[in-house]
Write a sequence for this structure.
């Protein structure tokens, strides 16, 4: 039977995750950082460090991972959390690949089946409520539950580092008379693979300008 991650105060999970997106990434995610920088000083809040490790957001020594940094990146945040939840609750994924789409009642049944806990057990309820609170900030679209994030990380690094390519340009030159005058025509071509579009453009250019 698997031991699934949870927090005693399920509502604190969403609040802490939201605060993480606002605060700078620390060299190490410590209890002092959690209380002083993020402002969560309660005794139950300390359990978030263990929960963050289960998500793959911080490593065993408390250092934030690349997934932590992706979570703080606005356009990557929801998917990064979804991947973290897939990792933390992998035993549930192994039982039902669409576990995150289940109703609360069905999800709770799955938790009980995996942990062996009774449906009215306090821990089982905390596991269910913690996941559902964290899920509110996640987007499972196109997330397959795979443990290898290398392809995803390469794609995000490329997305962050590379600027959009400029549209292709065509340059036409024409010499006028014996004076040797010349002019340049810069065309911004549409982003299309249809040869008819290019044929029409160059035909018009030839008939009217060249």
């Amino acid at each position: 039977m698997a031991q699934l991650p949870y927090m005693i105060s399920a509502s604190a999970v969403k609040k802490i995750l939201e605060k993480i997106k606002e605060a700078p990434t620390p060299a190490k995610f410590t209890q002092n950082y959690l209380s002083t920088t993020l402002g969560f000083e309660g005794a139950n809040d300390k359990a978030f460090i263990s929960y963050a490790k289960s998500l793959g957001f911080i490593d065993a020594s408390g250092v934030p991972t690349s997934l932590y940094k992706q979570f703080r990146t606005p356009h990557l945040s929801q998917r990064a959390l979804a991947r973290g939840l897939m990792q933390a609750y992998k035993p549930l994924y192994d039982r039902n690949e669409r576990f995150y789409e289940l109703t609360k009642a069905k999800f709770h049944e799955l938790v009980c089946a995996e942990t062996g806990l009774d449906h009215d057990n306090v821990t089982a309820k905390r596991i269910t409520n913690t996941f559902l609170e964290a899920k509110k900030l996640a987007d499972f679209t196109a997330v397959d539950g795979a443990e290898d994030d290398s392809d995803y990380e390469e794609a995000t690094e490329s997305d962050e580092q590379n600027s959009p390519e400029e549209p292709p340009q065509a340059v036409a030159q024409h010499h006028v008379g014996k004076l040797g005058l010349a002019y340049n025509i810069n065309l911004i071509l549409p982003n299309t693979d249809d040869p008819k579009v290019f044929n029409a453009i160059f035909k018009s250019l030839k008939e009217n300008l060249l």
